[in-house]
Amino acid sequence: MTRIIHIDRSDYRRDQIVDAVDALRSGGTVVFPTETVYGLGALASNPEACKKIFIAKGRPSDNPLIVHISSMEQFFSYSDPDDSYPIEGLNKAWPGPLTVVVRKAQGISDVVTAGLPTVAIRMPDDPIAHDLIEMAGPIAAPSANISTRPSITDSRDAIRFLDGRVDVIIDAGPTRFGIESTIIDITKRPAELLRPGSYAIEDLEPVFGPIVYGDVARGLGEAKIAITPGMKYRHYSPSTKLILAETREVFRQILDTVDEDMVVLATEEMVDGHKKAIIIGTDRDLYSVAHNLFSSFIALDDMHVDLALIHPFEERGIGFALMNRIRKASYRTVKSREDFLDLLGSIREKVN
Questions:
Q1: What is the value of pTM for the model shown?
Q2: DSSP per-residue codes, 82-99
Q3: What's CA 335's distance to the chain center, in Å?
Q4: Domain limits for position 291
Q5: Which of 88, 194, 253, 331 could form a disulfide with 241 if both were Cys (CB 3.0 to 4.6 A apart)?
Q6: Which residues are annotated as a binding site for L-threonine?
């Protein structure tokens, strides 16, 4: 049985999460809100409890977890004490949607780090998450979704998909950002972007210096070894085949071919009056798209159609993270209307 703890954020009190703290201390798993997405966590100091995370999600064991902390003291207890760190940058970015990869301290479980010499750490900026960590201890947690499926950004979906799989779910409504934390590897100089997220590179470079990245960070390939979540395996995907138009012009050219068995995912500016569309936000504020992206993928699956079409975003600011998630969620990218029609015919021929 999963215990559901209902919390009204306007009247939140620390004593409301005591049962969640007790569950963690007893070796259980808890789904909890952060400012980015919901996490599915266990105490980072309890390897047997952390194994339950992989079972609940159906997650490969070579995909490491992120250790969530509430203080710099906890950071130093999980990171190699012989290393030097950009403390000024961390103090400016934390608490917030930034995860850093550092060399791990001795005694950190291989279950948490997938046997790697490094550990991913972040300090979430959410009062419930902060109190949960402060009261129970550092929590190892990936996003609270079934492996490969869209991340959970609303507790209603957490209950829908994870009730019966975990010990406790904290029901605290939607998260603020709706897209996961940015991950940078600060064991390297310059720092390397491993996964774009709610902090844009443009936000981080003034305090961490130049940040480099490759195709994996853009969602154009997979790493051979997953140093952090989001680098390996298909991620964030709806069950519906999601087709990405390479450019917005191609998207517009395809729109008139979309039929009753397809859905369009688009900003309000790009919808063009299409009747079967899920509006994912506005181009005037791409953080609105980030907030709605994963919930839109879940809504798409509830429509039970064959295919969906989505347009791209400029890879700057939060648009970088959007394109990482969309590429990893997409079945195929099409470069023209003809390319789309060929793909559509091929897919439907296989179905029939």
A1: 0.94
A2: TS---HHHHHHH-SSSEE
A3: 27
A4: 241-351
A5: 331
A6: 36, 68, 122, 141, 181
